[in-house]
Amino acid sequence: MNAILVTGYRGFELSIFQDKDPRIDVIKAAIRKDLIHYLEEGVEWFIFTGNLGFEYWALQVAKKLQADYPFQIATLFTFETQGQQWNEANQAKLADFKQVDFVKYAYESYENPSQFRQYNHFLVQNTQGAYLFYDTENETQLKYLLKVMQEQADYPITFLTFERLNEFLEDW
C-alpha cells in the first residue's frame, strides 16, 4: 500500500468540543499505534481531507511520527474555500493541514452536490486503502464515502471503532 486515506468523525460528532478533552489522548494513542503499523507495512503517504476532529488528531500524530519514519503527508481539500468561516483557533488547525508535503484543492468553491460524489470517487481511486474512525451504528455524512470505499475492489479499510477504542483503552 502506497497511500492511505485518513478520515473519521469530526469532534462535534463525538461531543468533543475542547482541545483538552482527555478522550483525545486515548484516541491519539490508538491512532499512533495504527499509523505505526501502516508505516511498518511500507505506507509512503497519509492523505487527509482537512476536517477537524479525528483527522486533525491523526495529523498531529503523523507529523510527530515523521521524525522517526520516512513518509509524506498530503491534504486534499474539497474546496479552496474550506474553513474560511472558521474561528481563529480552527483557522490555526486549518493552517496545520496546509503545512504538509502536498496540498491540493479539488474545487475552487461549492457549486453543486455532485462535487462531493466526484471528490469521494477521486479519493478512493487515488489511495490504496483507508484508516477510518467510523462506526456504522453512529452514521454521519461519512457513510457516502464509506459506500464508495466498499464498492471499490481490493480497497482495505482499517476501522477505528468505539469498540476497538474501548479494547485499546483496557490495554493502555
Automatic annotation (TrEMBL):
Sequence similarity: Belongs to the UPF0398 family.
Name of this chain's protein: UPF0398 protein H9965_01235
InterPro entries: YspA (IPR010697)
A Pfam family the protein falls into: YpsA
Organism (species): Candidatus Streptococcus faecavium
Gene3D superfamilies referenced in this protein's UniProt entry, alphabetically: 3.40.50.450
